[in-house]
Amino acid sequence: MYLGQIHTGAEAVQYFSKGTEVMLKAIDKQVQEVSSMGAAALPSESPITAKDVSVAFCSIAEIFFTDLCMEEGAAERCKEAIEKALHYDQSNPEALQLMASYLFSIEKPEEGRDYLIKSVSSWLPSRQKEEESSASSEQPDEDDEERVQSNIPPYESRITTAKLLIEVEEFEMATDVLEGLLEEDDEVVQVWYLLGWSYYLQVDKPGSAEDSESLKKSARIYLTKAKKLYMKLRCEDAPMLEHTEQLLGELGGELVADDEGDEAGPSIDDIGDDFIQSSEDEEDDDAMEH
User: Fold this and answer.
1) How far is the CA of 87 from the CAs of 74, 96, 98, in angstroms?
2) Which of 98, 162, 189, 222 has the least CB density, counted as fewest CB within 10 Å?
3) How many whole angstroms separate alpha carbon 243 and alpha carbon 249?
4) pLDDT-based confidence at residue 36 (cuts at 50, 70, 90)
5) In Å, what is the CA distance from 177 to each residue of 49, 125, 127?
6) Residues 73-91, buried b or exposed e (16+ Cβ, 10 A)?
7) 3-state class of 124 per DSSP?
8) DSSP code of 272?
9) What start-end ranges are recorded for coiled-coil regions in this protein (predicted)?
10) CA distance linking residue 107 with residue 113, whole number of Å
């Protein structure tokens, strides 16, 4: 499996495929040992699980989504890998999200949306609380909490989750995902940008929970923060900066602290202008270094 991670394209697929074969044989061996020895069978130090196999098939599917997407038969092999991933772990959030992405790519948005919601619902804290409150009053046991925690995808994967949720207009859930990411790391420009973009898309949407002006204000705040952080970190994503500036132009420009008034909502104060190093500051720093 390690060789699959350090290679790309067809070579990576070969290594991951070989890895799945080895893992499946190991699982069969584990089952045989338990069957023959019963409770006396000693478990391996790190037993292979069906979830491990599912994750490996997800890695194969990802490659056909990216490196090998233009290869003949890539779509079919991608779908096959996702189906195998779900076969070995039907609740794997990564596999569910990959199936959602695949269905979106073949223009089946409603089916894709169902898979996406199922994926997010398995790990998003706000969804877990809803399920707990609608279920019995029994306290969730530690095993359930550990399972939910282990289901939380990596940071970058959750950014992709938010993009997909915005695409299917699940704005509230997208906001929950993005705000959770900010709690972990509030210096990722794309997260601020996506929050601003999400609020912007709701401005003229009928039936929005907030009024148009509140949505505009929130969009301006998040997009302003995205631009300031972009400058601070000296990012190199010109299209994102261009789109951010375009949206801010439509919304009335960057929002400064004095413009906020007493209205509720996120504050611009968290990211100030003082951290944006000017060209003169850079020259001074260079001079000091010499």
Assistant:
1) 20, 11, 14
2) 189
3) 10
4) confident
5) 28, 9, 11
6) ebeebbbebbebbbebbee
7) coil
8) -
9) none
10) 11
* Token pair in block for residue 38: 């019963």
Give the DSSP letter of residue 253. Answer: S
Residue 265, SS3 per DSSP = coil
Torsion of CA 2, 6, 10, 13, to 10 degrees: 20
Contact predicate 93/151, CB 8 Å = yes
- Convert the pLDDT of each residue in 126-170 to its tens digit: 777 666 555 555 555 565 666 667 789 999 999 999 999 999 999
CB neighbours (10 Å) of residue 229?
Answer: 21
Q: What rounded mean pLDDT belongs to the chain?
A: 84
CB 51 within 8 A of CB 88: yes
Cα separation, 201 vs 216, whole angstroms: 10
| pLDDT band per the 50, 70, 90 thresholds, residue 204 | confident
pLDDT in tens, 174-185: 999 999 999 999
What is d(CA 276, CA 231) in angstroms, rounded to the nearest whole number?
Answer: 6
Instruction: Name the residue with tokens 């990576």.
Output: 12
Dihedral Cα 159, 160, 164, 170, nearest 10 deg: -20
pLDDT value at 40 more than 60 = no
Whole-angstrom distance, CA of residue 64 vs CA of residue 85: 14
Quote the CA–CA distance of 6 and 19 in Å, as a whole number: 13
Q: Identify residue 260 by its one-letter amino acid code.
A: E
pLDDT of residue 264 exceeding 50, the answer is: no
Closest CA to 79 of 8, 117, 87, 168: 87
Kindly state the tokens that stand for 103: 């269905």
